[in-house]
Amino acid sequence: MQPGDDLVSRLVTNHLAAGELDRADLLGILKLLLIAGHESTATQIAFSALSLLTDDGLRAEVLADGGALLPEFVEESMRFWSIVQDSVVRQATEDVRIGETLVGEGESVMISLLAANHDATVFPRPERLDIHRDASGHLLWGHGAHFCLGASLGRLEVTLALGSLFTTLPTLRLACEVGQLRLREHPVFHSLTELPVAW
Ligand code: HEM
Q: Which residues does ligand 1 sit against, CB inside 6 Å?
């Protein structure tokens, strides 16, 4: 296979061949790109599309005026679906008190982004997907030192994909009952096994 003008080829020809990366480093980067960079956005696109496919009013509103409200929809549907649910784990490097709970040095804590994104004191009626709420404080990109490096890219990818999908295929519809959709077992992402559509 010949190297092309793509990121993987460049990593191989410029960095692996030059001895700047070893095979293990390269595989680590590729795995990260595939899971953090690709599965994340693909999963989000499917769930956001599902919201538009199952609510005609929402679809009409979001796609009106060339998709002017798409960015608000993308942000709110990220909060709503919370595809990264309970996979953010931290280990305390010293004793920390959170509310009434003491997390001892060395103990691990699993953080639920889903619970944070559905906290009714921050997002009233969290079970409603409401594009007119301010969803910008959601935690789906994480928080602090490990805040998602690909957040801007991810936002852009989901927005562009939905805009072009629904503009190119205006008759796009769900090709099964919502109740037939199945969730996939995955250590990081809450995702669908498939999203059958027709047009
Ligand atoms: C809908 C799309 C995405 C979601 C929901 C998402 C979510 C997240 C979350 C929650 C974290 C923090 C994990 C933690 O604190 O332990 C994170 C970190 C990260 N994300 Fe994303 N991400 C998305 C897209 C992307 C894309 C497109 C890329 C790159 C191409 C990317 C690269 C990364 C990297 C490298 C980190 C680790 C940052 C660090 O530890 O300093 N992500 N992401």
A: 32-33, 36-37, 40-41, 44, 83-84, 88, 140-142, 146, 148-150, 153-154
